[in-house]
Amino acid sequence: MSNQGSAAYKLSNLALNGLTRLVAAEINSDIKINAVDPGWVSTEMGGPSAPISPQQAAESILWLVTIGPEGPNGEFFRDGKRIDW
Question: Mind spelling out the 3-state secondary structure of 13-70?
């Protein structure tokens, strides 16, 4: 948040991360609410220079979706690892 530029992008991430935490606390059940940062993905938006394929980005998402009821709740992940927010 301390870097200059991209205020709208940063604000949208702030809202999404806040919503993740709020909904996770509200639901508090076997349903897990988490967020995944797929990284810079080689798509039309990411461009051909992005180092991550859509398949690689999907692996991180699928891991979290299939982690089961004992998994984390209200957290943030990149490449299958918890990241701070």
Answer: HHHHHHHHHHHHHHHCCCCCCCEECCCCECCCCCCCCCCECHHHHHHHHHHHHCCCCC
